[in-house]
């Protein structure tokens, strides 16, 4: 039996090109601009989504290394933006042990 | 900000005073002659409707299930009478969301309270949140819940006669987080404000499991899509 586990999975854009397109359209919408200003008090620039969409299409057509690099840089910047503040708490490795424990219906007050 | 270990305030009840039924042997069955339209029944119906139809609630439930914290209505939710004007709470000791049947009478309000409390439950599920001893953790979860549940939507703020616009969402989140902390902990307003300010940047920008502040059902759809796509996304960065 051949071991296929080590074979690299072919790279593809982090999001589908349709997703980049719909993110760009959503970003530009009046609703979104209104709520961005309501939340952040700044105007929104949506150019990056459009650039990502174009790079995605470029990748689909030509599989160009430049398009791949552009997309990776753009998405890494988005992730970095989300992670720029240190978290307040430590994440769990597994859910709380008592999440599913049954409630004690019979327990009276102060027992 | 002083933390645990030190002498705890002897009068601290961790907010349980607002939920008096939590301390009783409370699961008494209703009498046969009980009216069909009690607050309890209405609360259960509205809760069920929220869990089945609210995109925010469904998304949070789905993410929690994936993380190993499936929330069942009859185990993880409880409709009870509460004191004051509080609408709901999350009891970390029993992993239960409490809905205040005497204070929540509209479906839209129920949807929002369920979402708010599910965010606390989500935080409890995914992180070591020290609810009782770490005020920063409590404040952080309250900031996130106010930010992501729709509590501070433009429409809700208008209905409270708060007419701010530019960056008003953040002011609302700060204010509501402060009020929530003060409601359940015996600390001074100055202490509470200091803690909220300390953790605000980190917690306001922690949007998990949403990928953006959800201002509409459409935003929740985008967040759901991003969640489903997460393996592809992180695998191709």
Automatic annotation (TrEMBL), chain A:
GO CC, any one term: synaptic cleft
Q: Which Pfam families match?
A: PANTS-like (PF11326)
Cell compartments where the protein resides:
Synaptic cleft
Query: Mainly localized where?
Result: other
Q: Which domain of life is it from?
A: Eukaryota
| Family recorded in the similarity comment | Belongs to the UPF0545 family.
Name of this protein: Synaptic plasticity regulator PANTS
- Species in which this protein is naturally found: Scleropages formosus (Asian bonytongue)
Automatic annotation (TrEMBL), chain B:
Which keywords label this protein? Answer: Hydrolase, Metal-binding, Metalloprotease, Protease
The record ties this protein, via InterPro entries, to: Peptidase_M76_ATP23
Which GO MF terms does the UniProt record name? metal ion binding; metalloendopeptidase activity
List the GO biological process terms.
mitochondrial protein processing; mitochondrial proton-transporting ATP synthase complex assembly
Q: Which Pfam families match?
A: Peptidase_M76
KW DNA damage (keyword) present: no
Taxonomically, which superkingdom?
Eukaryota
Quick check: keyword Iron in the entry?
Answer: no
What's in the GO CC field? mitochondrion
Q: Which family is this protein grouped under?
A: Belongs to the peptidase M76 family.
Query: What is this protein's record name?
Result: Mitochondrial inner membrane protease ATP23
């Amino acid at each position: 039996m051949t071991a296929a586990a080590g074979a690299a999975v072919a790279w593809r854009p982090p999001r589908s090109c349709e997703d980049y397109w719909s993110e760009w359209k959503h970003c530009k919408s009046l609703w979104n601009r209104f709520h961005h200003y309501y939340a952040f008090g700044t105007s929104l620039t949506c150019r990056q989504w459009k650039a990502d969409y174009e790079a995605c299409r470029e990748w689909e057509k030509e599989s160009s290394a430049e398009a791949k690099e552009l997309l990776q840089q753009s998405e890494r910047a988005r992730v970095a933006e989300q992670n720029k503040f240190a978290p307040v708490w430590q994440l769990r490795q597994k859910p709380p042990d008592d999440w599913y424990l049954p409630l004690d219906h019979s327990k009276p007050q102060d027992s | 900000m002083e933390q645990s270990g030190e002498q705890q305030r002897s009068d601290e009840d961790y907010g349980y005073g607002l939920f008096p039924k939590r301390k009783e042997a409370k699961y008494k069955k209703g009498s046969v002659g009980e009216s069909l339209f009690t607050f309890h029944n209405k609360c259960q119906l509205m809760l069920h409707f929220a869990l089945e139809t609210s995109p925010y609630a469904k998304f949070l439930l789905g993410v929690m299930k994936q993380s190993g914290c499936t929330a069942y209505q009859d185990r993880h939710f409880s409709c009870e009478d509460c004191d004051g004007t509080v609408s709901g709470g999350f009891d970390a000791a029993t992993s239960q969301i409490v809905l205040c049947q005497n204070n929540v009478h509209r479906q839209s309000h129920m949807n929002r309270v369920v979402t708010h409390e599910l965010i606390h439950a989500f935080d409890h599920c995914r992180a070591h949140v020290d609810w009782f001893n770490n005020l920063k953790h409590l404040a952080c979860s309250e900031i996130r819940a106010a930010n992501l549940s729709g509590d501070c939507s433009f429409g809700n703020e208008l209905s409270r006669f708060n007419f701010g616009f530019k960056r008003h969402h953040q002011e609302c989140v700060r204010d509501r987080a402060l009020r929530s902390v003060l409601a359940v902990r015996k600390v001074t307003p100055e202490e509470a404000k200091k803690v909220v300010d300390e953790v605000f940047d980190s917690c306001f920008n922690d949007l998990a499991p949403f990928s953006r502040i959800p201002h509409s059902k459409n935003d929740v759809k985008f967040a759901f899509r991003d969640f489903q796509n997460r393996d592809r996304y992180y695998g191709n960065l």
